[in-house]
Amino acid sequence: MDGRDAIATTEPHLLVVDDDARLRELLGRYLVEHGFRVTAAADAAEARAKLAGLDFDLLIIDVMMPGEDGLTLTQRLRATSRIPILILTAMAEPDSRIDGLERGADDYVVKPFEPRELVLRIRNILQRAERGGESGGQLRLGAFRLDLKRGALFRGAEPVRLTAAETTLLIALARKAGEPVSRESLSLEAQFSGNLRTVDVQMTRLRRKIEHDPKFPRYLQTVRGTGYVLKPD
What we know:
Blueprint: E1 13-17, H1 21-33, E2 37-41, H2 44-53, E3 58-62, H3 70-78, E4 85-89, H4 94-102, E5 107-110, H5 115-134, E6 138-141, E7 144-147, E8 152-155, E9 158-159, H6 164-175, E10 181-182, H7 183-189, H8 196-210, E11 220-223, E12 227-230
Parallel strand pairs: 1-2, 1-3, 3-4, 4-5
Antiparallel strand pairs: 6-7, 7-8, 8-9, 10-12, 11-12
């Protein structure tokens, strides 16, 4: 299953990552019939190889895979990429679904699923991503501008120096602007090995760079008992 890798095409290009060969084949055929280009990978390692050489519009990642599972792959990809991710999971419990979303997935579908629902969810994610692209994928924070696509913060035309950890935390909050994000989720996102104190230290440093008065933050606010929330203009 290749999905017609023609160079000149407007069809959204999807990467399906699942260790079930039969599901990859059936799903790929169905998605191609509904207007998508599809490339497949059997595991996280193959997915990384495909990502290194091809451009994709959306990833469909199964949670239960041998070796690096889908949640871990999603979390690690989110540290450097904003490509939309839809997770396939056989676990219907709310905690399992929330875990996927907290690690950076844009949506999830529980197995077994109705293929038409999957197509609708894919199209909805792509439409949201397109609207974000049309608006420049940017957030305003007073005198600052956060470019989500580039993962960069600017004050006017001048870039603001951020560490890798600061950038990861800021982008993680920006993806869910206006929504509280737990310290645990931020720690996982930044690969702090569950050290919540490190999250607090990095947030303090970010506030010093962004807030007019770091003691009374306007944009990077603490949510008592939960974590932090980014409130752009």
